[in-house]
Amino acid sequence: HLIETSDPYPTEFDDVRDQNHAEQAAGTLPSLKNHIENMEQYDVVFIGYPNWALNVPQAILSFLSAYDFSGKTVVPFCTHDGYGAGNSYRSVRNTVSGANVLEGIAIEARNVPSSESQVQDWIERIGIEREEQQGGAIRVTAGGHTFTGEWLNTPLANEIRGMFPLKATLGRYGGREYYGSMSSRPTETEEGQLRFENGDITYCPSNNTIAIFYDNADDPNMGQLTMRIIPIGKVTSGLEIFNEMDSRLEFTFDNVQ
What element of type H or E holds 118? Predict the structure, then answer.
């Protein structure tokens, strides 16, 4: 959920700084553009923001003040320009009465592109695990080989599953994946990621491609991607055979009957 003010902030740095200082001094809570109607369904809420003048932007306090966080787990994270989290964690904790506020993470802005391992360590340290909803079994065939897999129950995955049986010509790349263009472009896209796990079936909205990642997820030189991908499923049978297959094959994705 993107936290946006009804009246956009200025685009010039000095103007944004001056407006933020004035809002902090006056305790102003700017009105927000959007509201989450079903906040009660979320048990864990991550709050991300830039550190402005050693604290959260006032718009973040507007957001936190708009909902009842009692009994929820709140996880703050922020970027900064050398001053760390400042007083922002305390401000979050004081605003979400009745919530369990976990240890946050503050990353210097210039280090964001290389911070993935730091973020993963933090997620593990605070005990947060992502639970992927399974949408059912699928079958993938290519080059005379058949693989079994699980499909995710997400809007994007379900839309692509509606195209089954889906045929796509995929080529090997970098000893880690087979990827190729989709015949049509899905509409239910979402925020992607720059990491993968072995076995992941993914969609890349930047170039409208589907891919199967089969190796080198732990290789620091191969595990970092340059374009964001969205997981839609996972191959659960043996991945070793992918290294022995032809470099370019027609893949078919289908439901298990």
Answer: helix 116-125
Structure tokens at 162: 């509606």
Q: Cα–Cα distance between 204 and 107 in angstroms, integer? A: 27
Which residue in 38, 44, 37, 36 sits closest to 72, CA to CA? Answer: 44
- Distance from C-alpha of 177 to C-alpha of 217, rounded to nearest angstrom: 10
Alpha carbon 177 to its chain centroid, in Å, reads 20
**CA 205 to mean position of chain CA atoms:** 14
Helix axes 58-65, 13-26, angle to 10 degrees: 50
User: Helix or strand or coil: residue 60?
Assistant: helix
Is this model's pTM higher than 0.85 or not? no
In terms of DSSP bridges, do strands 166-173 and 177-181 run parallel, antiparallel, or are they unpaired? Answer: antiparallel
Band of residue 131 on the pLDDT scale cut at 50, 70, 90 = low
> How does strand 200-204 pair with strand 177-181?
unpaired
Instruction: Kindly write down the DSSP assignment for every residue of 123-188, as one continuous string.
Output: HHHTT----PPEEEEEEEEETTEEEEEEEE-SHHHHHHHTTPSEEEEEEEETTTEEEEE-SS--S-
Residue 134 pLDDT exceeds 80: no
DSSP state of 122: H
pLDDT of res. 243: 94
